[in-house]
Amino acid sequence: MRARYASLGLFALALGSKEMAVTLPPTLVLLLLFFQTPRYGRAKSIFIRIFNAIRGSWRYWLLLLLYLIIRTASLGTFMGGYQGSIGEGFSSSLIERLLSQRSAYRVMFPLNLEIFAPNSQWFNYLRIVYLTALGSFVLSLLISRSKETIIKSVLFTGLWFILIM
Question: What is the pTM of this model?
Fold first, then answer.
């Protein structure tokens, strides 16, 4: 129970510091949808599984709703207040953001370009971390004996990447 409260508290702190945290509730839904524990059941119907996944993450959705209400009341707009390279990303359409190589680059390197240069040493460190993580993911898929786990992992990863775009 304490871990749940700590998780919600850290989510609230994350919302206050980085808007990327708004993707946590839908990510939890994807996680529960593909890797549901017996607590939420293994229903055959996709609609029941989605409902169970949302039910399993309702506290995070509630906290996100409160954040969006407070943010909208503070800024006077649902989405706004961004400037520079970050604001530029939000000005394009959803399709443009999904298909743009520049958007993918901004997701992979979520640093303000006015502060961090793309040829910075920190970018190189981040590239090494990402390549290591990708190698680890591919290796875990290669040594996995369960075809179902491989399919679920690839689907989850693909949908998660679309979600964060």
Answer: 0.73
Instruction: List the structure tokens of 140.
Output: 């875990």
Structural domain that includes position 104: 85-165
Euclidean distance between CA atoms 19 and 137, whole angstroms: 26
Mean pLDDT of 8-34: 90
Looking at residue 139, its amino acid is: L
Residue type, 131: L
Quick: pLDDT tens for 126-151: 788 889 999 999 999 889 888 888 89
Out of 34, 60, 81, pick the residue that ends a domain.
Answer: 81
Same domain, 92 and 75: no
Note the helical H segments in 21-145.
Answer: 24-34, 46-56, 58-75, 84-91, 94-99, 101-108, 121-143
